[in-house]
Amino acid sequence: MNAAEQALSIEYASKIAATVGAFKGQLPDLRSDLKPWANDPDTRELIDPDSIDIGFHFPGFSYSFNCRSLLVQIRLHTMASEHDNTNIVKLIGIEVVGFNHLGEQWHLSTINNWQFEGVAPPKDNAGEKIKLCCRQIFKVFNPDLDA
């Protein structure tokens, strides 16, 4: 779901801002997009309500990252608290996908093995920057866990 639609509380807004900050800290030229999904019925059917989705765009094609844009999907899981009637939301994984004018070039899933897959993965140094951003996001959403 678009990050702009998920920023309904101070807590979520600050976590979304920290996510943007993590990527811009590593890649200052990126432009963030808190509404990467179109608001049409066909697209709305595909949107995961338990995710926070943020788009990032390079000023042009990035040869290090082998893409023009990134889609970051933060996958969440809600569970009931054992102590009271509140819900606890935990980050269960992050999906990062690199796109250019031909479509998806690569993807990274922290749910699986943290390996880049696709026709044109990023260069090693660029890939490590993305993984570092993912580790930072885990710390923001799950401060009690080590990523």
Automatic annotation (TrEMBL):
Source domain of life is Bacteria
Record protein name field: Uncharacterized protein
